[in-house]
Amino acid sequence: MTPPLIERPRHLDRGRRALLGLLTALAWAVYVYLWLPLLTLLAWLLGVRTVYTRLYLEQSQLDAFLLLALPVIAGLCALVLIVWAEYNRVRFGGAERRRHRADVDDAAVAATLGATPALASGLRGARVSVLRLDDHGRPVRRSDR
């Protein structure tokens, strides 16, 4: 029995991968489009439309506070985030805090998986393996991708 195609996406030709990517993007666009009525309702409840109408359509002028204060506030927020990131980099950088775990021997792997010692040692040497299981869920053999 051949494995499903989804496990081997590199075996698809470039045109089919592009088509599947386009279909995925289209599905996400439809999904986002379905959320628009709820987002519109939330914006209306929060008064975004009223604020926009009063500030820009009725008065037909820009507020000097908005032009001056908002960029300053945005700059201060960026400055605070940069300072916080640099503080964390200085505080936590350079030191490896994770402890090295002891290696697990092949016998322990074989006992835990219910596999043969040869299979357990083969798993250690392989970078990526696909395990074939019997009816009881015990590994019987492996194949490299």
TrEMBL record:
Single GO biological process annotation from the record: cell adhesion involved in single-species biofilm formation
Origin superkingdom: Bacteria
Keyword Membrane: yes
Keywords annotated in UniProt: Membrane, Transmembrane, Transmembrane helix
Transmembrane segments: 20-45, 65-87
InterPro entries the UniProt entry points to: PGA_PgaD (IPR023829)
NCBIfam families xref list: PGA_PgaD (TIGR03940)
Protein name: Poly-beta-1,6-N-acetyl-D-glucosamine biosynthesis protein PgaD
Gene that specifies this protein: pgaD
